[in-house]
Design goal:
By secondary structure, the chain is mainly alpha-helical. Helix content is 75%, strand content 5%.
Length: 257
Amino acid sequence: MPFINGYYLPYWVLFFFIYCFLGWCIESAIVSLDTKKLTNRGFLRGPFLPIYGFGALTIIFCTMPVRDNILLCYIVGVVSCTALEYVCAVIMESIFKTKYWDYTGHFMNFQGRICLVSSLFWGVLTLLVIHVIHEPISGFVTDKLGLALTTVIDVILLVMLNVDLYISARAAFDLNKAAAKLEELGVQLELAKMELRDAVEEKAQELEERVSSLSAGREELAARLRLGVRSLVKGNPTAVHKSFDRGLIELKELLNK
């Protein structure tokens, strides 16, 4: 069995899931406080935020040569995790055409994907992981659970994660279709309203019916969305769609009625 930097592979997998869960707790708490309602933060439906899992593993690997130097440990954490956050943002946007986090408007942000406050926060998390959190987690996993039980837990969690990924990805693609359709309906609705204002008397009733039909179409589309799409939209209130942002904004308004 592979032995990597002091741990067997199953231990690394469980570390990933533990930090995914801790990251989900942090993000959900922050967003819930900000929106003043309980929010399941993130792309997935379950209590996982993979960027924190990958971030923690990146921190542990990259800071090994400098872990005894607090300043260098902080700097390495800031640089490595900021790079990871940027790459994750680019990949998710290219696949799902939606920004699931957007720092536009934040001080010293770059393309809305990373910003100074987030980077500094990664540095603080690096120090917490290396000097406070990881040692007791590592001790519990290796000493209390052991390799066999850890492997079983890993298999269960990997199955759950893959199922969640499939459901969430399908919801994300449904969201793209809904945003595109809502944007199309919104444009038609605006054109119909403009025509209605300029219409002669005999066309007024026809255009009123068209406006009513288009409005009903928007409401019906929102009502027919899968629960996964609703959860995805509500769990990511700052999400921005690259191609159909107007449609996504209208979808948020319809779901918040």
